[in-house]
Amino acid sequence: MDESRWVGARVARIDAEDKVTGRLKFMSDLSFPDMLWGAVLRSAYPHALIKKIDTSKAEAMDGVVAVLTHRDVPGLNGFGIVVPDQPVLCADKVRYMGDAVALVAATTKEGAREALQAIDVEYEPLPVVDDPEEAMLESSPRVHADGNIHHHIKVERGDVDAAFRDAAVVVENTYYTPRQMHAFMETESGVATIDEDGNITVWCGSQHPFRDQLQIARALGMNPRKIQVVSTPAGGAFGGKDEITVQIYLALLALRTGRPVKIVLSREESVVAGMKRHPMKIRMKTAAAADGTLLANEVRVVGDTGAYASLGGPVVNLAIEHSCGVYRMPNVRLEGFCVYTNNGLAGAFRGFGANQVVFALETQIDMIAERLGMDKLEFRRKNALRQGDVAALGHTMTASVGTIATLDAASRCEIWARREELKAMPSAPHKKRGIGIATELHGCGLGVGLPDYGAATIELLPGGRFAVGVSCPEIGQGNTTAFAQMAADSLGCSVGDIVMVSGDSRHTLDSGTSTASRSVYTGGNAIRSAAARMREILADVAAEALGAAREEIAFGRGGVEVRSCPAGAARRLSYREIARIGEGKGRHLKAEGDFIWPVADRGLEGYFGLPHLIYSYITQVALVEVDTLTGEVEVLRAVSIPDPGRAINPAGIEAQSEGGVVMGMGYALMEDTVIEHGITKTPNFSTYIIPTALDAPEIETIIVEEPEPSGPFGAKGIGEAVCVPITPAITNAIHDATGVWITHIPATAERVYMALKEHA
Amino acid sequence: MKEIGPGAMTTISFKVNGGLVEVEVSADDRLIDVLREGLRLTGTKEGCGVGECGACTVLLDGKPVNSCLVPALQVEGREVETVEGLAKDGRLHPLQEAFIEHTAVQCGFCTPGMLMSAAALLRENPDPTREDIARAISGNLCRCTGYHQIMAAIEDAARRIRAAVPETSEAEGAAGTPEARRE
């Protein structure tokens, strides 16, 4: 058992056929008899007091069934993963343009939107807080009564000042990163239904059905058992559907009207109200000795979390944890602030704070290597953490470490090995080519101090197939296919014999979030635990039926057999036969498995969620061409070298890798949600530009496997790391081409052009 | 195109995936509303509502259009093809097979529109270059993939359609044997 037949194979996604035929129902595709349309009245100001809300005109409109305000929230009028500081419906104050003030349910979509316009809200505008550093001053207007600094973290190790004094090279720069948008193709949307006993089901694509259930229950003042949340499938999420989106609105409207209610956010509403990546200002001062040994890093990060906390604190914590990257850094002074403003909302987004600091750090690394005249790859190799080393935060790297393996592969990849040759052949005389490299490690799981657990169920179905339940939702990343592969190998059957149950608070056990590069590792380990118990049960039933001793039962493909059995007796039972025997005896053949994450040997007093024990590793290389007349940058080729421990499905890893490269390229070159004085200036895809097929570079993915012994079949998560180092690989390539250092992304044509002019 | 006043309803008839349908529409109904809500053909997705993302792409008289930008009244007497019409007689279209085999599908929300743009391309140009393919799907945004698996799938489908005999590939449906799927 546990031989790898399916694990490691290029298995077609189990959900692909339903997706290519259009059969799969996303939540925005669902429709129920007697269903109403819901709509959300958003704030008219980025920062204002609410003086009066009058809904009488809207209520009197034809087709309007309910209009709800803060007075209609039965339970806690707040939500938020860490602190519930975001009102479900604002009572006395609005803090960003996406704040919800009222809800409408009407018989038509148009009717619901018209009713919103008939709601009369009187505001008293307040000064807009839109600069995070100014927001930190005592004199700043307050977004929240307790002050604008939501979270502050400070970590010091070693003697930073002495290290800077003794260093041969010190580089110090300020970096700015944009407010990237998740831009999932399906906006936040869903349906809530309610039965005659008042049980509510919320169908809404998201990343943790059980936490949604809890947050909905709190707001409704209702027992969570009466609320079912179905989160799979989601039409993309990337962290942007980790926090509550429309779930509570849906539940409130269904509760009030007793009818199914559907809400689908328009793209513009999604852009204004939805989550973003934290823009950060990063001051980084890094020192090295003459021989290229890194000595110290001093980092100050200010993250703009917008109006509410959501996961802003943990994002800044992880920025601090990842700010020294893959390197041995004996002396550090790291400080991070998570600050409230009226600039929209920032929270979880693939990479979770690492994208920003790794951009800064990997630029610093290139600068130092260049100052010392060292090869940029060799400089990284020299300073990279090895297994057993102590990391910047003081914990020991006891799990598998893949940096060297990914760097070795990078050194052999074509665009690195032939870089001088490729550089010398630009497509036009006014164009210049460059090659850049960057690397990172990425924490998997929730880190020290947060309960991080997995659970899985396996049930033998009549007919001999297995239903495997893991709650971590399928948000497009392909975890259900990986789960099916691991279950198939754990049970000795084929992927076709596995029926996955995902993202459903009623039909699965809580296995936590589909975030933090954790679901394959967590779900896989939980499946292995459940499968071991399932095999015990199957062996029991088979032993009894075959009249054999338990120890005599061996598992083969698709069933069990007796090792040495008396002549004439049946030697073998298929799972189908065992299912029939179980049924005949009225035995429910079901097993549960569980798993708790191991954590790092040392935490940080006063903080939670860091550091991590298990990291995924990745090196990425980019070949760019810069048009020196326009400043336009084209990424021609990219090589992505992830270390997922073990590739459960290499085709799936390639899919993640390619998608990550293009998302990280968008972050490097084009994407920014512009908010001026609290107003979003890029509310759709004609102003917020994401890469198209014409922008995508040629991408090669080289999978490097450094098995993680604690992982299922040696695997760990890779979903986030794939979009991180590509950004500085691209900006480092721009430097290689032109001599210009990019410290402010996105490196738009305008920014690059101005930098080239200044450089000349 | 039919003409009616604001607020009034009228019946239009047109072909969807080969079958004639009659639906009642108002002046401000869009083709996507008729497909998704009137006919419950929810394979066609709405990602932006203003013709920027391509998720709602369908074929109108064989040409790809953003169905969120087409007034329903405009399709009177015309022919519409959606993702639900790609598979014929229970057999997947070569594009659908290739999308499955090349892992060209992740969250799947852009997939129907992507398939329809690709189908239109292959009818016009059975032997497209990578550049042709990239151009044909450049109006279809995808946030999950890096587009390459999609372009590889379209290339592969074009090959199969040209050969007219479907080839077997390294990754078949989940019911196949894993041996066939190893690298």
In words, what does this structure look like?
Chain A is of the alpha+beta class. Chain A folds into 3 domains: 16-23 and 453-501 and 512-596, Aldehyde oxidase/xanthine dehydrogenase, molybdopterin binding domain (Aldehyde Oxidoreductase, domain 4), CATH 3.30.365; 31-126 and 188-264, Alpha-Beta Complex (Aldehyde Oxidoreductase, domain 3); 280-447 and 602-759, 2-Layer Sandwich (Aldehyde Oxidoreductase, domain 4). Chain A has 20 helices and 28 strands. In chain A, the strands form 7 sheets. In chain A, strands 3-5-1-12-9-10-11 form a 7-stranded mixed β-sheet, with helices on both faces. Chain A has a 5-stranded mixed β-sheet with strand order 7-15-14-13-8, with helices on both faces. In chain A, strand 18, helix 15 (479-491) and strand 19 (498-502) form a beta-alpha-beta unit. Chain B has 2 domains: 9-85, Ubiquitin-like (UB roll), CATH 3.10.20; 94-168, DNA polymerase, domain 1 (Orthogonal Bundle), CATH 1.10.150.120. Helix content of chain B is 29%, strand content 15%. In chain B, a hairpin with a 2-residue loop joins strand 3 and strand 4. Chain B is elongated. Chains A and B meet through helix 1 and helix 18 of A and helix 2, helix 3, helix 4 and helix 5 of B.
Annotation keywords:
heterodimer, A: 760 residues, alpha+beta, Aldehyde Oxidoreductase, domain 4, Aldehyde Oxidoreductase, domain 3, 3 domains, seven-stranded mixed sheet, five-stranded mixed sheet, 20 helices, 28 strands, 24% strand, globular, B: 183 residues, Ubiquitin-like (UB roll), DNA polymerase, domain 1, 29% helix, elongated, disordered C terminus
